[in-house]
Design brief:
This protein has 9 helices and 5 strands. Strands 2-3-4-1-5 form a 5-stranded parallel β-sheet, with helices on both faces. The N terminus is likely disordered. The longest helix is centred in the last third of the chain and has 18 residues. Helix content is about 45%, strand content about 10%. The chain folds into 2 domains: about 130 residues, P-loop containing nucleotide triphosphate hydrolases (Rossmann fold), CATH 3.40.50.300; about 70 residues, Helicase, Ruva Protein, domain 3. The protein is of the alpha/beta class. One of its GO terms (cellular component) is plasma membrane.
C-alpha cells in the first residue's frame, strides 16, 4: 500500500481538459464547452451543485478561447469595457441576485460582450429562472441563455472525482479505497471534497496511511 506523506503539501488543483472525467452526469456540459463556437447567441449558463466541476470546465473553456474569468461579486468594480473586449466567463452569477450594482454590471457586460462579437459563459448552482434577479432586463436575458447542467454523480464518477481530489493533494491511497468510499459517502461533489480533505488531515495528524479502517472511521464521524 502506498504510504501517506507525513508532512503537509500544497493542494494543486488540476484544471486541464485531460483531468476532467467525462460521465453521463456531465457529458452534455462537456460537449457544450467543447462546441462553444456553436452556442446560440454566443452565450451559455453552466449550472450545477458546489464542487460539480463548474470552475474546472470554466478554465477548460478559457484555455480554448483565451477568455478572461471573473467572479460575479467583483463585477461592480470591474472594467466592463475591458472584459468585453474578448470572451469572458463570469463565475457564480446567481450570487449577485438582489445586488443592484452587480446586476447592472452583469447586464452591461452581457450586452457589450455580445455586441463586440464575443462569447459569454456564466456559472451558477441553479438555472437562471431560479435566480431572484431584481433587474427585469437582466433576468430576461439570463433566462434566454442556453443552459447546460452538471448533474448528480454516479458511483463511477464519484470514484473518478475522489481519485482526482487525492491526486490534487499528492496522495496515492490504495485504489480499492475509491469504490469503497463512493458506495458509502453522501452523493455529492461537495461531500467528496470534504471527505478527501478530512482523510488527508487525519492521515497527517496520525502519521498513518489512508486505508479502509481509517476511511470507515472518517465516514462514521462525518455522518454524525
Amino acid at each position: 500500500m502506498a504510504e501517506q506523506l507525513s508532512f503537509d503539501l500544497p493542494v494543486r488543483t488540476a484544471l486541464g481538459r485531460e483531468d476532467f472525467y467525462v460521465a453521463p452526469a456531465n457529458a452534455q456540459a462537456v460537449a457544450m464547452i467543447e462546441d462553444w463556437q456553436g452556442w446560440p447567441s454566443r452565450k451559455l449558463v453552466l449550472a450545477g451543485p458546489a464542487g460539480a466541476g463548474k470552475t474546472h470546465l470554466t478554465h477548460v473553456w478559457a484555455t480554448l478561447t483565451g477568455a478572461k474569468i471573473i467572479a460575479a461579486r467583483d463585477l461592480a468594480e470591474a472594467d466592463i469595457a475591458g472584459l468585453a473586449s474578448g470572451p469572458v466567463a463570469v463565475e457564480d452569477a446567481d450570487e449577485i441576485a438582489g445586488d443592484a450594482p452587480g446586476e447592472e454590471a452583469l447586464f452591461h457586460l452581457h450586452n457589450l460582450t455580445l455586441a463586440e462579437g464575443h462569447s459569454l459563459l456564466l456559472t451558477a448552482e441553479t438555472a437562471p429562472n431560479f435566480w431572484p434577479l431584481a433587474l427585469p432586463d437582466l433576468a430576461s436575458r439570463m433566462q434566454a441563455t442556453t443552459l447546460a447542467h452538471l448533474r448528480a454523480p454516479d458511483d463511477t464518477l464519484l470514484a473518478a472525482l475522489l481519485m482526482k481530489l487525492f491526486s490534487d493533494r499528492q496522495l496515492s491511497p490504495n485504489p480499492e479505497i475509491l469504490p469503497y468510499l463512493a458506495r458509502r459517502m453522501d452523493r455529492s461533489f461537495d461531500a467528496a471534497r470534504r471527505l478527501v480533505a478530512t482523510l488527508d488531515a487525519t492521515a497527517l495528524s496520525t502519521g498513518r496511511p489512508i486505508n479502509r479502517a481509517m476511511a470507515a472511521k472518517v465516514l462514521d464521524k462525518m455522518s454524525e
